[in-house]
Amino acid sequence: MPPSKKTVQLFGLSALSGVLLWLSWPERGFTPLVFIAFVPLLFVNHYFNSREVIKRRRKIFSLFFLAMLVWNVLTTWWIYNSTDVGSIVAIGLNSLFMAIVWMLFHSTNRKYGITIGYFSLFCYLIGFEYLHLTWEISWPWLTLGNVFAVHPEYVQWYEFTGVLGGSIWVIAANLFFFVLAKNIFNRDLLKQLRRINSVVALTGTAVLLSAPLIFSKWLYNRHVDKGEPVSIVVVQPNIDPYNMKFSGNGDDQLAKMLQLASTVVDSSTKFVLFPETALADGLWEENMASHKQIRTIEKFIHAFPNVTVLIGAATAREYDKDSTPSETARKFHDSENYYDEFNTALMIDSSNRIQVYHKTRLVPGIEKMPYPKVFGFLEKIALDLGGTSGSLGIQENRTNFIAPDSTLIAPAICYESIYGGFLSDYVKAGAQLIFIITNDGWWGNTPGHRQHMNYARLRAIEFRKSIARSANTGISCFIDQRGDLLQQTGWWEEDAIKQTLYKNNIRTFYARHGDYIGVAAAILAVVLFFMTLYKKYFRK
To answer: What is the pLDDT, as a whole number, of residue 142?
Structure first.
């Protein structure tokens, strides 16, 4: 039997929401579309709330899942470039989680009506986004507030709210336009507008929605980068991660990177950045100082004694017999001892001091298998999203790198640059600049590497810190304290660029308090969930 006309309409509305979200997303989308993207899905929810429908739960869940699947597939399809089966698992799981969140909203809306129901949409969606920033299956790529990454002039107030404040703005706008559209379709708008309280409410809501943009424009126009000038060089070596990076000659690749850097380094240069796992051969940390490639870097520094180098490396550390191995430790094939492998950032200065940071926020599926007792069977189809693979060790207690002139640097490796709350710990500890090293070549020339770079612009706003970003290939760049791109490289190009950034001791409200909006939303979401269960199963 062919589907009914109403069924076709409902599935069309669901798919439309997914398409609108995709069309609004960075880096080439039309951002304002996000303010109406959920309206079709809210009409779907309204339809099922306003009447009894046979097998309602199964039908509406399939519609929610369709909308989220369309959004995820169209926006993050580029994961497929790294792994085919793994991308299907990742996109499918994320769509499922999002559909469950919308189902929770539908249940609360149906049980408690408009006021509590619409309030629950804020709590469930933002609570889920906060969960996605904290749990092991973390994938905050599609956090709603990320949609403004290419328009930093829209969200200068992220220094107070972080990216989750943008999520509140998006949800509020969609609810407003849904109510407006519903009244128009019900032909009640003119009747409602005759009532003075409705006019006041409508005007107040319009002001509320436009106020963030006006406030942001005011902050944007008056902001001037603060702090002391620092000359920085960023190198993009453009080494193919599939065919060269981990199979080529590491010494030759390092020589290439140093030669690129030397074309722009001068006596004023303070820092030189090289990308994630630039030293891909593997360094044992016990003998790091004597490693040939470290000595090569030291020779480069001695030629430019004012320079401090920050470089990515694949490193390993052996546990002695008296130490307790970590959960990620691996056993030697020919020994009873254990060792850990790390995705590492090294800072080396003219005193030959080597500072080490082990990547903490690991990429699910490639650098760490989340909840291995549940998802251990997926090890063979792990996602290729980073430089070093396998279950890696982490650094529990993070500290800033300290340059010879006492400048404090927050090192972020690849995926870590998406996490505002995570980086806020560095800023609270005094970080004056943020350095990002990454390897975005895994995804090819797709929206993936461009989205990743643009998300870093939001970190600059949240903390009012200048950012230098070195990518193996993709986009290496400099970002000022209001999120504007000062200079950037092209895709698949060898390059070295130089810029003066400003270091400062600013600690924004968001830096001090982190994702407080997410914490509040998550707590309220749990309360609303149990309220809904109570009314559904226990209250007569």
So the answer is: 97
pLDDT at 380: 52
Cβ-Cβ contacts under 8 Å for 310 (sequence gap 6 or more): 271, 272, 273, 274, 345, 346, 347, 401, 409, 411, 435, 437
Residue 456 CB partners (closer than 8 Å, separation 6+): 417, 436, 467, 469, 479
Asked whether 535 and 112 are in contact (CB, 8 A), the reply is yes
Best CA proximity match to 274, nearest among 309, 243, 303: 309
Burial grade of 99 (CB within 10 A; 0-12, 13-18, 19 or more)? buried
> Position of tokens 């470089």?
311
Look at residues 348, 347, 330 and name the one whose alpha carbon lies nearest to residue 390: 330
Give 154's DSSP letter. Answer: G
| 74 Cα distance to chain centroid | 17
Please report how many Cα atoms fall inside a 13 Å half-sphere around the Cα of residue 453, on the Cβ side. Answer: 30
pTM reported for the whole predicted model: 0.92
| Low pLDDT (below 50) residues in the chain | 381, 383-389
Instruction: Give residue-wise pLDDT tens across range 179-196.
Output: 888 877 665 555 555 555
CA distances in angstroms from 24 to 67, 126, 339, listed in the order given: 14, 19, 46
| Helix, strand, or coil (residue 435) | strand
CA angle in degrees (0–180, nearest 5) for 338-339-342: 160
Whether a cis peptide bond, with omega within 30° of 0, leads into 27 is: yes
Task: Please write the tens of the pLDDT for every residue from 255-267.
Answer: 999 999 999 999 9
CA–CA gap between residue 472 and residue 276 (Å, rounded) = 7
Tokens of 477: 């760049």
- The CA distance from 440 to 413, in Å, is 11
Measured distance CA(505)–CA(432) in Å, rounded: 6
Predicted local confidence at residue 196, as pLDDT:
52
Residue 2: burial class (beta carbons within 10 Å; 0-12, 13-18, 19+): exposed
With the C-alpha atoms ordered 182, 187, 192, 193, is the resulting torsion angle positive or negative?
A: positive
Structure tokens that stand for 164 in this block? 């989750």
Q: Which of 333, 349, 452 minimizes the C-alpha distance to 407?
A: 349
